[in-house]
Design brief:
single chain; 385 residues; alpha+beta; five-stranded antiparallel beta sheet
């Protein structure tokens, strides 16, 4: 009998979890949809390349959507069972809250394993693959990111303005460039037409200008020089525009556990860099563990009978998730500034939620109402006074 009940509750959670996970991931992806549509419509990037880019973005999204989807799914499933009085029937039949928690624990454990695999293996690889794919896209269409009638300062020492760019992005018309990376001089370059060519080997983009002039002024503003040209080439540093893609330029979110630990052992690192790496090391385990205490917390919160099951479940989940990630952000901020150690700053939110979850579970198992206890406490205090 207990196996049948466990399977029934697990199916309720699993069905809601899959739908909510899809919705949450889609909502996060919508934040990137305008940029993706621009790549397809204006830059001519193939659908296959866009599909690869989306697949590389998904692991980073799942690291956050999986625990949140589990929390909402349990709240909705338990809320529905409570609203239909099924929880009451189960308790009347001798099924304890601990036995009801068994399928919830299985679901929490499964999502914990999924999240730790995603965070430990997939997220660093996908973040780094995203950077490499962006460089490949830049090779295919070097004008990506440069918009007409907008000043572009992505390249060091170069400020670029193009009055018109054709939809295919093959060239730019009526180009204005402010160039101050040569000998500290301020050069203003005007050209009727400009082309961009990517060089994959040197990770640079060459800007070829046609039919223009270079206007230079000496630092003391006493001398002026003008040079007319038919063709003039400028090398732009593409690696600085997209933050580089070499192995040595990996950021902490692009490193695997081994790479993080190896870099932390390197001599000469300042304390700020070590703290940043330590935060990522601890986050690879602390974030997946949120699945465990989210499940423990959602059960006592979800069994409160309420008519609006779905809306209440989503509302409670938003409050819980907001508090948790606010504590995480604050803790990481204190670690980055050196006020707390990485262990304390990263793990304190988890410890707080674990203790609070155990307390709520104990109260629900003993069928003790927290609100009733507060009323009794304040009533006795009022009578005493």
């Amino acid at each position: 009998m207990h196996k049948i009940i466990s399977r029934y509750i697990f199916k309720e959670i699993a069905f809601s979890f899959i739908i909510i996970l899809f919705v949450l991931t889609f909502v996060l992806l919508m934040g990137k949809i305008l940029q993706i549509m621009d790549l397809i419509v204006n830059k001519g990037i193939s659908i296959f390349t866009i599909a690869k880019l989306i697949s590389f973005l998904l692991p980073a999204f799942m690291l956050f959507t999986v625990p949140i989807a589990l929390l909402i799914a349990i709240l909705i499933a338990m809320g529905r069972l409570s609203a239909d009085n099924e929880i009451t029937v189960l308790k009347a039949s001798g099924v304890s809250l601990t036995q009801i928690y068994y399928p919830v624990a299985i679901a929490s454990l499964i999502t914990f394993i999924i999240t730790i695999i995603v965070g430990y293996l997939l997220v660093p690889q996908s973040n780094f693959a995203t950077k490499r794919l962006l460089f490949t896209i830049a090779q295919q269409n070097a004008s990506i990111g440069i918009k007409e009638k907008v000043f572009n300062a992505d390249f060091k020492g170069i400020l670029l303005y193009a009055e018109k760019i054709p939809p295919k992005g093959d060239f730019m018309e009526n180009v204005l460039i402010s160039d101050n990376h040569i000998r500290g001089e301020q050069n203003t370059i005007l050209a009727k037409k400009a082309y961009l060519f990517a060089d994959a080997d040197s990770m640079t983009v060459m800007l070829r200008l046609e039919n223009g002039s270079i206007h230079s002024v000496s630092p003391d503003l006493k001398n002026y020089r003008k040079i007319d040209f038919k063709i003039y080439d400028i090398n732009l540093d593409l690696s600085s525009a997209i933050s580089g893609i070499s192995e040595n330029s990996k950021t902490s979110v692009e490193m695997t556990m081994g790479e993080l630990l190896e870099k932390m052992r390197k001599p000469g690192l300042d304390k700020a860099a070590i703290r940043e790496l330590a935060i990522e090391v601890h986050k690879k385990f602390s974030i997946p563990l949120s699945c465990i205490f989210f499940g423990l917390l959602a059960l006592p919160l979800g069994i409160k009978s309420h008519r609006a099951v779905k809306s209440r479940g989503v509302a409670v989940a938003i409050i819980v998730v907001s508090i948790y990630y606010l504590l995480r952000i604050c803790g990481e901020a204190f670690v980055e500034t050196g006020y707390l150690s990485p262990e304390v700053g990263v793990w304190t939110p988890n410890i707080i939620f674990v203790l609070f979850s155990i307390y709520l579970f104990y109260m629900a198992d003993r069928e003790i109402s927290l609100l009733h206890m507060l009323k009794v406490f304040f009533w006795r205090k009022f009578r005493t006074n």
